[in-house]
Design goal:
- The complex is a heterodimer.
- Chain A is mainly α.
- Chain A is built from 15 helices and no strands.
- Chain B is mainly alpha-helical.
- The longest helix of chain B has 26 residues.
- Chain B starts with a helix and ends in a 6-residue tail after the last helix.
- The relative contact order of chain B is 0.16.
- The chains are: A mainly alpha, B mainly alpha.
- Chains A and B meet through helix 3, helix 6, helix 7, helix 12 and helix 14 of A and helix 5, helix 6, helix 11 and helix 13 of B.
């Protein structure tokens, strides 16, 4: 068992990385459930990608690479993205998936061009933005995650009933007097803050995976919302630990390893979930079609 | 903009389109072909409500590239492209496979495949990087694309594959259009929808792999989604949408390649995408089918008909 304990003795980067990763995973998993139920999982894809143009634009406006300003800029661009997607998808001929695709790729293209023409001198590492640096979490990233996690989870707890009702049946929620639109933008803001706080530590790709995949696993296993939230968070944590140890043991990218571990967990749930697992369904189907033909009506 | 800079812009643009430099010609051809192919294939994806499958297929190429590199040990383009193609097809098929049946949302399925495949690709690349023989095989070029580095042989391959795609779409036009608008009806007519689906996903994967070199992984999705989405504002009929999408894709490619030539530091991929976004914005405002201005005019005319004399 020494390989489980040993990394913790190599320096404080291990507990810093683990702590950050787990906090990000829990927040992402909880928000991901509400996005999943609203069929808005791919908003996470969009919001994680626009972090690049957000940071570049913040740098162009403020002229500094100061952390707080850049994160603020990224959050503003994230909110703008959410509003723009909402607006474009309200057009009569544009579906919501196309709206997501148009808006985030447009902003991403803009970000790449600004990065290559205007901020060539500044050191903005696109590789780091996409893949993060789980094993070298900075003080700023850690404190940002440490602040945003309780804030967002607290807000989710306060608005839990509204979020639940409007996720399952938006029209019913509207009829009850729940401010559905405001709630929606609140959720988008929470995802943006989580993505912005998370990508410096763990990277955009991992944020996407931690938002989308745990909720999908939980939907295969859970029978009610509370169980779904718990399973989703558990998925995030297990994937984080498994991925971290894999990354250290095999000397591979930590962000990638956590993503792959999450994907494997989903595949297991997809095949072997007690009620909805595909393996059981195949077996039921095989049993139903094999054997002697049964009479259509009970013969008396 | 001052007249001086406009003159410089125009002369540089003319220089580009005079095609006296080989690399300008190659960049232009590559960009236009990518725009046309993506515009064609993207139309079917957007109309089916599966726009972001292209995004996932683009990200899903990464593990294929890495595995091909591990197996062959070289950066030879055909092997890497073949690897990319296989894993893109696998990714696209996985999406349709897992989103069939209960308890799986199609949008989540796209996100799951996108992130897991890409994560696997990152893992493999980090493994290659750590091993003594490997070096990161131009990852940033792969992510963001570089049309100027495309060789004539590659353009030949892209043109050939594009021609095959066009012919195939022509042959299967009727079943494809049926499936796009009403899959259940197509199924009830006895059309092999599973095979059509496989064909469409393979076409998507081919389009993605052909485009990656010029526009990169992330922006290939843009060329698959933006021109068809803009085209929907221009026509109500499938052939009209298809033609408009292909034309806008091709023109975006040409103008994007030109902008990238004129402005130093601007890559072709993002420039193409921004031109396409410009077309999308125009279509959103003025497109005859549901554009903002025609809608406002129609509403005004209806109000005048209902209340003649201008009473408000």
């Amino acid at each position: 068992m020494s390989f489980l304990i040993e990394p913790w003795q190599w320096g404080d980067w291990m507990w810093r990385g683990m702590l950050t990763l787990n906090l990000v995973a829990i927040t992402c998993a909880v928000l991901g459930v509400f996005l999943y139920l609203r069929r808005m999982s791919l908003i996470a894809d969009a919001l994680a990608h626009v972090a690049l143009p957000g940071i570049v634009m913040a740098f162009l406006v403020t002229g500094s690479l100061d952390g707080a300003l850049m994160l603020g800029g990224a959050a503003v661009v994230g909110l703008f993205t959410a509003v723009a997607i909402e607006w474009v998808s309200r057009q009569p001929t544009v579906r919501s998936d196309a709206a997501i695709g148009v808006v985030f790729t447009a902003l991403f293209a803009l970000g790449v061009i600004l990065l290559s023409t205007r901020v060539r001198d500044a050191h903005i590492d696109t590789h780091c933005l996409l893949f993060g640096d789980v094993l070298g979490v900075s003080d700023r990233a850690l404190s940002l995650v440490a602040w945003s996690t309780p804030l967002i989870l607290g807000l989710v707890a306060i608005f839990y009933r509204w979020l639940a009702v409007s996720s399952f049946d938006a029209r019913f929620a509207l009829a009850l007097g729940v401010p559905v639109a405001a709630l929606n933008y609140g959720l988008m803001s929470a995802v943006t803050v989580t993505a912005v706080a998370g990508f410096e530590a763990v990277g955009a790709v991992l944020v996407i995976a931690l938002i989308i995949v745990p909720a999908a696993t939980a939907h295969l296993l859970a029978r009610n919302l509370k169980a779904m939230l718990a399973i989703s968070a558990a998925h995030g944590i297990i994937a984080s630990w498994a991925g971290m140890y894999l990354a250290i043991g095999l000397n591979i990218s930590a962000a990638g390893a956590v993503v792959v571990a999450g994907g494997v967990l989903y595949a297991l749930a997809f095949l072997f979930a007690p009620e909805h697992g595909r393996v059981w369904r195949w077996r039921r189907r095989a049993l139903a079609t094999s054997g002697p033909p049964r009479p259509l009506s009970p013969s008396g | 903009m001052e007249t001086g800079s406009t003159d410089i812009f125009l002369s540089r643009a003319a220089e580009f389109f005079s095609l006296q430099y080989d690399f300008a010609l190659y960049a232009l051809l590559a960009a236009v072909l990518v725009g046309v192919i993506c515009g064609l294939v993207g139309t079917f994806m957007v109309l089916r409500g599966m726009s972001l499958v292209g995004d996932a297929a683009g990200h899903a190429t990464l593990p294929g590239v890495a595995i091909a590199f591990l197996l062959t040990g070289t950066k030879s383009a055909p092997a890497l492209l073949l690897g990319a193609l296989v894993s893109a097809v696998l990714g696209a098929m996985t999406i349709t496979w897992i989103s069939r049946g209960p308890r799986v949302r199609a949008d989540a399925a796209i996100g799951i495949v996108l992130s897991t495949f890409f994560g696997l690709g990152i893992v493999l690349l980090s493994y290659i990087q750590a091993s003594p023989t490997g070096q990161q095989a131009g990852l940033s070029e792969y992510l963001f694309g570089n049309a100027a580095a495309v060789t004539p042989a590659q353009i030949g391959v892209v043109a050939l594959a594009g021609a095959v795609l066009v012919v195939l779409v022509g042959i299967f036009y009727r079943p494809l259009s049926l499936m796009v608008f009403d899959e259940r009806f197509a199924q009830s007519l006895g059309l092999p929808t599973h095979w059509l689906e496989l064909g469409l996903m393979s076409a998507l994967a081919v389009a993605v792999v052909l485009s990656i070199q010029a526009v990169g992984v992330i922006l290939v999705a843009a060329m698959l989604i933006i021109p068809p989405s803009a085209a929907r504002f221009l026509s109500k009929k499938l052939p009209g949408v298809m033609v408009a999408s292909v034309v806008m894709g091709g023109v975006s490619g040409a103008l994007g390649a030109m902008l990238s030539y004129v402005y130093e530091g601007v890559a072709t991929g993002p420039a193409m995408v921004l031109v396409a976004v410009f077309f999308f914005a125009l279509a959103l405002g003025f497109g005859p089918v549901g554009g903002a201005l025609p809608r406002a005019l129609r509403r005004r005319r209806a109000r005048q008909r209902a209340m003649p004399g201008g009473a408000r």
